[in-house]
Amino acid sequence: MRVMALWFPDWPVRAALLGGGVRPPLAVSANHRIRVCDTLARAAGVRRGMRVRQARAVCPDLEVLADDPDRDSRMFESIAGGLDDVASAVEVLRPGLVVVDALAAGRYHGGEGRAAELLIDAASRRGVDCLAGIADDINTALIAARVGAVVPTGGSAQFLRRRPVELLVAETALGCEPGVVDSLIQLGIRTLGELADLPSTAVGTRFGRAGQHCHRIAAGVPDRRVAPKLPGADLAVAITPEEPVERVDAAAFVARSLAAKLHQGLQEAGLVCLRMKVVAELTDGRRLERTWRTREALNEQATADRVRWQLDGWLTAGGAGTITTLLLEPVEVSAPEILGELWRSGADTDQARRVISRVQSTLGVDAVIQPRLQGGRGVGERISFVPYGDAPGQPDTGTWPGKILGPLPARLGPDTPVQLEDGRGGLVLVTAEALLNVAPAVLRGAGVGNYRVLGWAGPWPVDTPDQRCARLQVMGQKAGDDTPRAWLLVWRDRCWRVEAEY
User: Fold this and answer.
1) Domain match, 175 and 295 both
2) What span, in angstroms and rounded, lies between the C-alpha atoms of 218 and 198?
3) Which range has the worst mean pLDDT, 135-144, 172-181, 327-336?
4) 66, 95, 137, 476: which could join 72 in a potential S-S bond, CB 3.0 to 4.6 Å?
């Protein structure tokens, strides 16, 4: 496999300039922060992620537009349509980024270099830059497009070694989590080669599937193919409106209806869609097609958005005329991702969200809750439960004198009374100076059993108007058992109780 990626830098800004009515310096914002800015704005000191107010202070002449995915897709359709004249397998990852089967295009045009020249010429517009990258897999091609490089066959790993690890989050289509990349940088990982040299199992243990995904990209592991031949059941859905579609608002209504119909069929088949073809038949007999590729499975809303964007581009920028029939064809499907033991029936993420939304709409938002970390001294105090879907608040990072040090216990309870004794059978108490009167040697209790104390830490006293107690970490081992256990004990009302277990 050889993949060519065509990247159009700062596309939201370029789309706005192509639409007219604005002038540089220009930026596009989302959630009151700069999402994309042009060259003049960057020269003045504007950067992505900067607050809009701060950006205007740095560049007083800056014109800031709201993020508009519809505009980006509508303006990009004219460019994508020109690419269809050069290559047959053109797939849109997002407005401003496409991938092409470089092997097929190279065979037809007499080489990869010649095909890249023709594609860049077909995409040329005044004020619009285009960079091409060619590699053996999609992820490496996306990174190569950032520098306009052609990676030799079999050279993906060598090409990636010297690239900074920040490139993993420079392109959203790579699907890397910013938090994981930030943690890698804090750990001293500066290049993709350093990340690839780490054992895959160690990265997976520390960062989970998100870390393994970053590791696979850094190692140049091949990804899904461009335009593969995938056998499967016919899950395509079509709709022929009573009146031909010629307005964007009518197209949006048709897009929602067709997306709902498609996902109902996918759900019945137990599948999710990763690559979708949008087909429109026009009154003049023409047939327009566009393939959209995503890394994550499309849900109903994401499908409707992409269909609406595509129809908007055809009706507005492409001069399609009127649409008589619209067809959606899932050209790449897979089994849904299993969420774990909570969803034993095999529901995917989209299904889980739909079920939760249905429960909340019926029983109220408090019917489904999820844990959030917060500040506190004890174990139970550090977790609060909020309605599912609420934005997580920032945990209180106060000093919290008397808080338990990590690692924290894994399970609360069982909240049973126990006795701590020294080697002679005397009780272990907490003195007025918040110290133990003697060193503990034995832990015993009706719901726990008898354990020989192997080690202990604390106590940590808490003396506030709301609490007056002390906590102690204890590790013990039962006779005849090779596996030690550990508990978090709390001293309250002159009695030890098990607050949590490790």
Assistant:
1) no
2) 10
3) 327-336
4) 95
